Amino acid sequence: MPRRAPMGRKYSATYAILGGMADRERWEIDLRCPQCGLRGHARISQDHPLIESDDGQTVDGLTVGFKVIAHKLSQNSEIHGSSCNVVAKRI
């Protein structure tokens, strides 16, 4: 028997699918600065693909020694080594 909302209406198919899912997907990536060799990781999150949103990926945490450079004209951003200001590579 389908689940019903308190007022007797059925939940929408989208709600039923997302009801047990997290609203954001989260993962970690390993980083290395090609200039100084610093290694670390970044915690990244993104809205779940079934949720309509204009949000891109968000950097939720970084190892000390790295920084996020945000671009004003787009949602893209880069992770740089703080001391050398060189784009970190994903390893």
Please tag this protein with its features.
single chain, about 90 residues, mainly beta, 4-stranded antiparallel beta sheet, 6 strands, about 40% strand
Condensed summary:
7% of the residues lie in helices and 38% in strands. The chain is mainly beta. The longest helix has 6 residues, at 13-18.
Structural class: mainly beta
What is the radius of gyration computed over CA atoms, rounded to a whole number of angstroms?
Answer: 19 Å
Order of helices and strands: HEEEEEE
Helix content estimate: under 10%
Estimated share of beta-strand residues: 35-45%
* Number of structural domains: 1
What does the largest sheet look like?
Answer: 4 strands, antiparallel
| Main sheet: strand order | 3-2-1-6
Number of helices: 1
Oligomer: single chain
Query: Mean pLDDT, as a whole number?
Result: 76
List the uncertain runs.
11-18
Head-to-tail CA distance between termini: 49 Å
Mass-distribution shape: globular
Description:
By secondary structure, the protein is mainly beta. It has one domain (23-90). The protein has 1 helix and 6 strands. The chain has one helix spanning 13-18; strands spanning 24-32, 39-47, 58-62, 66-70, 77-81, 89-90. The longest helix has 6 residues, at 13-18. The termini are far apart.
Layout of strands and helices, then pairs:
Elements (H helix, E strand, L loop, with lengths): L12 H6 L5 E9 L6 E9 L10 E5 L3 E5 L6 E5 L7 E2 L1
Antiparallel strand pairs: 1-2, 1-6, 2-3, 4-5
